[in-house]
Amino acid sequence: MANTGVLPFVRGVDFTKNDFSDGKFPAAVRLMTGVQWLKLDKTNISEVAEEMGKLAKLEHLSVKNNDLEKLFGELTELNSLRSLNLRHNRIKNSGIPVELFQLEELTTLDLSHNKLKEIPDGLEKAKNLLVLNLSHNQIDCIPTALFIHLTDLLFLDLSHNNLETLPPQTRRLANLQTLILSDNPLEVFQLRQLPSLQNLEVLHMRNTQRNLQNFPTSLDSLGNLAELDLAQNSLARVPDCLYKLPNLRRLNLSENEITELSTSIECWMKLETLNLSRNQLTALPGTLVKLSFLRRLYLNDNQLDFDGIPSGIGKLSYLEVFSASNNLLEMIPEGLCRCGSLKKLNLSSNKLITLPDAIYLCSDLDQLDLRNNPDLIMPPKPMEMQKGAGIEFYNIDFSLQHQLRLAGATVPPAVQTAGTTSKDPIARKLRLRRGARPEVGQADSAKVLKGMKDIADEKNAKNWEEERVESIKAKRWDESLEKPPLDYSEFFEDEDGQIPGITIWEIENFLPNKIEEIAHGKFYEGDCYIVLKTCLDDVGQLTWEIYFWIGNHASLDKKACAAIHAVNLRNYLGARSRTVREEQGDESEEFLALFDTDISYIEGGRTSTGFFTIEDVIYITRMYRVHAAGASIHLEPVAIAFESLDPRYVFFLDTGLKIFIWHGRKSKNTLKSKARLLGEKVNKNERKNRAEIHVELQGEENPEFWKVLVSEDGTRPAGKILEHVDENFTPVLPRLYQVQLGMGYLELPQVEIPDQKMVHTLLQSKNVYILDCYGDLFVWFGKKSTRLVRAAAIKLSQELFNMILRPKHALVTRVQEGTETQIYKSKFIGWDEIIAVDFTRTAQSVAKTGADLTKWAKKQDTKADLAALFMPRQAAMTLTEATQLEEDWNYDLEAMESFVLENKKFVRLPEEELGHFYTEECYVFLCRYCVPGEEDEEGTTEIVPPPEDEIQCVVYFWQGRNAGNMGWLTFTFTLQKKFKAMFGEELEVVRIHQQQENLKFMAHFKRKFIIHHGRRKVKQVTPDGKVAVRFYCLRSNGSALCTRLIQIKPDASYLNSAFCYILYVPFETEDNSESGIVYAWIGSKASPEEAKLIQDVAEDIFNNPWVSLQVLNEGEEPENFFWVALGGRKPFETDATFMEYTRLFRCSNEKGYFTVAEKCSDFCQDDLADDDIMILDNGEQVFLWLGARCSEVEIKLAYKSAQVYIQHMRIKQPDRPRKLFLTLKNKESKRFTKCFHGWSEHKKPPE
Fold first, then answer.
1. What sign does the dihedral 68-158-198-266 (CA atoms) show?
2. CA end-to-end distance (rounded Å), the chain
3. Which residues contact 317 (CB under 8 A, 6 or more apart)?
4. CATH superfamily, with its number, for domain 735-827
5. Is the pLDDT of residue 961 over 60?
6. CATH 3.40.20.10 fits 1019-1133, yes or no
């Protein structure tokens, strides 16, 4: 084991929950010669280790929850020992050496929960003891000499023993502050020594057989008593002497026989906690409401009814807990709901019928328990509280009126919630008393008010239609910009700039990082620094000087961030001074005067740049066994060996750029899916999607898997995979240490984990932590941690790793805040699974992961953007506007060269093929535009030829929906380079996909944009080898510029009277020449422009003497060729009014919150994204389309959004009511697919 030299500087270590049984105690402990405190709790040790004797400076030792029986040996040599905690062991009287109590510094001794039958011999010699705990033993007698010598005791716990009396010398404990005698048979003992204990503040006498006869009446002499526990006794009433304890703060009288309370309880003016549970109370005195500081009141298991609770209980403004379960309550006073601080209300197992309406006013209530009240009917919620969809929908208010307001719209009268006016019962009573008595001028006033109301109603009705569209008009992009709130606490700490002196930060990964005072004045030439001088002016006000120092060899990001964060520091402090730039070798005199000595320069750079550096990443191969851990998984590291495999488990083998997930034959499906999800997260977040994920099934493994696991030749080892993992296997609980650094010492305490749930919120940016998982040891560096703490943590982690016996595959991993690995995150509950990213499950399953969803939702202002649902539909472009745009863009086009990918290289496209596109091809169009020059001031119309530098070059790369990415790669490395060499940086490259073309590109083809199936020079044939029938549909989406002729499936049901079609029916010939008949079919409701266009296009496509063209109007179809080619006559739609209403919305969580965005009117099938949910409106139905990889939260929120949209359209278009339908990918109905031009099979993702 390599010695880092850091152990002598360690002042304290917490080894809790490590396994030091069977001689595993770390020998390196003997090197911690400077250690002052040591925790060995729950380490399974059975004897005091020999190494403990070397710890001469040890002052505090805790060895709780172990198997110690004897204390002989090294403990008696620890002369500096001050506190010794030995609770929960097996120590007997014979195992305690007398020498232990002769340690002069010993002040705290805890021997509770052991097997002591009497006071240990020699204990009276420990004269300096201040704290003594002997509880939970079997002691039946206290020797007289004990309290003669231990007169300095402040805390004495003798509970849970067999004591029947205490020695008279107990009165000598004049300094005693806490005395615990609970659970001892003290029935005969009169406690006459109590009046002598004048400093007593805490007295526990639970279960000591107290009754009114043997109760110590002198208790009222203890004026300092603040806490008294008398539970589990036989008191029929509260002893009178208790009412004379004015400083009492906590009183426990539960489990007695008390039937009533005196009104004298008002004397307990400082009382904060009162426990009266499990008594026989039927009523509480009215003076209870005078206990103004009362915070917790427990009344469970009594006989209280409605009249038994004071009506004025609402005066208890500090009351936080009211617990009255298992009583006879049918109602509770309304005043109870007006206790402003109430957080917990327990009314379970009563006879409640209803609750006061004011229950909804308890805004701070964290817990309301109403179980076992079968007749309970909750009062109706106030109208303003009925909005929203509750926790189930993540606290987002989906009410139409709320969403309209968020979208900036005026809420129409039809949406206003009826009956939202608040009711005033007092005003109602006054009205009833007055009756219908006429008042002077009442009639005239009524007429005037009625006239004003009529005029207002007419005005509102007239303006509503105009305002409802205008009010939800989209804001300009710059109008919606908001200045982002900057939280300077992310960069600087509260104490920065508050104490006179010098503070210096270095720039690392774009952020300021404070350096230690020892490094002041030493600057690296490759780094940048921020220097703050804080001082006091003449009137005692803080003033600041801020400098940022630039090294000669610093990178650009460090220079920029030094300047930016210097300004941030000025804003954070509210300083009025300017930030001063200082450069290496040219520092100002004022800057140099900040340091006591000359500044020095160090070659190189200490901190890392924020820019990505291109370097080979070294991946360490690891293998993990996947176990279920609640709703998540536990990853147990195992040796990379054939013997590690077990058919009942899933194994995760990570080699870096290849991730193997091995499925045992008996492994659970849930573990398989979660392991796959883990692999995808690792690939996305850590490998930049460059890793390959291979799923290996037992018995069907690829040789690559065996090559990594066993041998280089990739052969499977002989032998059977055995079930060797213990069925009762439980992973080692991880231990989280915080590295603490002081002046010349180190400490390694464990972080207290509340409820034994490790959550990532325990990690604070200014600290460094070590997470010990036995097989994995992680060192986590916070962003604000200092350089020295980081260096110390690295050395401490090495020592901690080596001093504990670990498997050979164990590893130390360093983790930076913000770049944590998925393996590290999996050690914490709910990290990167619920709140921080996305709710991927129902609210019920989220709660199982440990997240308090209700508490989170109350604090969280859940953001959602549904404004797109209330925007008006994009208006269709008129034919005149489209023609004008087309002419303008083509006028600017000087030349267009066309290329097509052929045999892995781009060749020129034949002129006759211009405008013809194939779904499996890639095309390139080089367009040169003439940019018109600006007119002179006088506006002369003199034509001046544009200069050469006003030529704009744009390259359009068009990719068919079934074409692979090889075309794009070929273009990038060949043609694009040539174009850049010709036209320089002015060249603009635009990549476009099929049916997602921009309008300017479409305009160059003058509405003759034809998309064919397949490839250019490959004939389309049927499965039996015959020439295939080709069927095309002409359609415009939102504009004449978006006119396309797309080949579709030859089926008569695809006809529509509003469109035009081309049907090519081939003839069979011996020489396979292209001959046949072409039908141009014109629907009865088609526009004249499209009817003319379809004829022109048909003539251009099939310009062949062997092909005849026939123009058919709807109803003139010949029976032979036309209907036969389309598979027979079938009913088809005769109307396309859906084109006037069709809208497509995308629902997504990709921005970190739920948003709805509308696709343009020229949408296509490929706009349906697998990761999202789409809302499609065709004017009659609204469809909710679910992508294959959408999350459950998106489904729930999109469903609510669709409902809101339908409500909104019901108001805007009452004559077109819509119904909501659900549709899944690959199961779309005809009503859905008709909204998409050229619908076909969904595009398959590339393998």
1. positive
2. 49
3. 292, 339, 340, 341
4. Severin (3.40.20.10)
5. yes
6. yes
